[in-house]
Amino acid sequence: FFPRIQVKKKKPPSQVILMGLDSAGKTTLLTRLLTGQVMMDTSPTVGFNVGSFDVDKRTSLTVWDVGGQKSMRPNWRFYLDECKALVFMVDSSDPSRMPEAQKALKKVLSEERLRDIPLMVLANKVDQPGAMTVQEISNQLGLSNYPHLRWEIQACSALKGIGLRQAFTSVAKLIKKN
C-alpha cells in the first residue's frame, strides 16, 4: 500500500501576444526573457518571433512578438486566436509616436476576440532621458476609455532587464483571474 501523492502538473503555456509600434523594444524584451542576454542589434521583425518561458513552477507563457511596422499591423488580427493576454509595448522615450501608438492600440482592441482579454501596457525605455511617466502614457493612450477592460501599465527597460519579470508575473495573474 502506497500513499497517493498529488503532483501539481504544470498547465500548458498560455498564449500572450506582444504588440506595439516598430522600435518599441519587443524583440529585445523577448530575447531578454528567453536568454537573459542583451540584444544590441535588432532588425525590424518581419512576421513574428516566439518563445516560451516559466513564470513560476506551475505557470508558463508562450510569447508571440509580432512585427510592428505599419505594413505588418493589418496582420496583427491573425495572431489573436488563442490569445490569453495582450501585451502592448510603447517607447516611453518617444512622445511623438504616442498618437500613432494610441491609434494602433485602439484598432487592435476593437477586435471581438479581445473582448475579455486582459491588457498589459509596457512603458519601455524608462531609463532614457526625458522618458514619459506611466501616467502620461496612460493618458496619451486613452486607457481610461476602456472601462470594460482589465488593464495594467508598467514601466520597464528591456535593454537593462528592469521590470520584465514583474510585468510577466502580473500578466500571468491577469490570465488566472480571467
TrEMBL record:
Keywords: GTP-binding, Magnesium, Metal-binding, Nucleotide-binding. Belongs to the small GTPase superfamily. Arf family. SUPFAM superfamilies: P-loop containing nucleoside triphosphate hydrolases (SSF52540). Mg(2+) binds at residues 27, 45. Signal peptide: none annotated. GO terms for molecular function: GTP binding; GTPase activity; metal ion binding. It comes from Hippocampus comes. GTP binds at residues 20-27, 68, 124-127. This is ADP-ribosylation factor-like protein 6. InterPro entries: P-loop_NTPase, Small_GTP-bd, Small_GTPase_ARF, Small_GTPase_ARF/SAR.
